[in-house]
Amino acid sequence: MPNDNSPSLRVKENRIICGDSREILPTIQTMSVDLVLTDPPYSINSKSDGQGKLSPWADYMNSAMFYEFWLRECKRILKPTGALWSFLNWRSFPVFAKASCEVRWPMESVLVWDKKWIGPGGPNGLRPSYELVALWAGPEFSIADRSLCDIKRCLWASAKPFHPAEKPVKLLRWLLEISGGQSVLDIFAGSGSVGVACVELGRDFVGIELDSGYAEVARRRIEAAVRQQRLEFGAGASAPLRVQRPTGDLLESLGEHGSDGTDK
With contact defined as beta carbons under 8 Å apart, do 80 and 33 qualify? Predict the structure, then answer.
């Protein structure tokens, strides 16, 4: 961690940081990010066994403390014109609602993502065909296209080659396009789908991923997307993307000079 208390990390170029978002977020400069687009853990595994606990509500509220932390940090680092999009589902909605109340940052909208596909479900209820994406807006943020509604149809692929919770790049591109901004942060980067979408749209991207294996997958996917962009549009050469680890020296250097990091 930095020796002083001033945040120094800026979202200004493509990079993957392998580390804990709870440790990395406080190092990002205040009001320096245009958009946060992320897919956090949904906090749905609150039951300890097949029968479950008598009441999992306390577990949900404990989870809300974790959500509250990163929501508060995202609110701090976003520019006034910025916004946060986060995936969630009906099970995790109470956790997000509780965290939003604690941060005093209400959801601006909730998008229904119609997957155009029926997913697996339990033996008794309806089979799911949608997920949600919540929007938290900065005081000066607005979606320019006022014809957009709160349902987006985008085909969900049953095969997910990179991550069990992988989201379609096409959907992520659409969210980026309607939101605007140049600098994009994903604090639960997974296999790097948001990074791929950013490369395709020419946005600056930083992804934070705790799991070193998925961080490496994200690096390779984003590098492949960069190579594809060069083939299609003749973009100039760029330095190889590296998985960075949040050492104290690294975090101190990111703010002004960037870092080569270390290859995994």
Answer: no
Burial (0-12, 13-18, 19+ Cβ within 10 Å), 74: buried
* Element (DSSP H or E) covering residue 69: helix 57-77
Express each pLDDT in 168-214 by its tens digit.
Answer: 999 999 999 999 999 999 999 999 999 999 999 999 999 999 999 99
Phi-psi region of 100 (alpha: psi -120 to 50; beta: other; left: phi over 0): alpha
CA dihedral angle for residue 198, residue 37, residue 165, residue 244, rounded to 10 degrees: 70
* 149 pLDDT above the threshold of 60: yes
Q: Which CATH architecture has domain 15-44+57-119+127-254?
A: 3-Layer(aba) Sandwich (3.40)
Pairing of strands 78-88, 130-137: antiparallel
- The model's pTM is 0.83
Using an 8 Å Cβ cutoff, are 30 and 7 in contact?
A: yes
Tokens of residue 53, six digits: 């606990």
Secondary element (H or E) of residue 18: strand 15-18
Contact 92/43 with Cβ under 8 angstroms?
Answer: yes
Q: Give every strand in the sheet of 15-18, ordered side by side.
A: 151-153, 109-114, 130-137, 78-88, 33-38, 183-186, 204-209, 15-18, 243-244
Residue position matching structure tokens 């993957």: 16
Instruction: Quote the tokens at residue 198.
Output: 């950013």
Return left, alpha or beta for 181; rule: phi > 0 is left, psi -120 to 50 is alpha, else beta: left
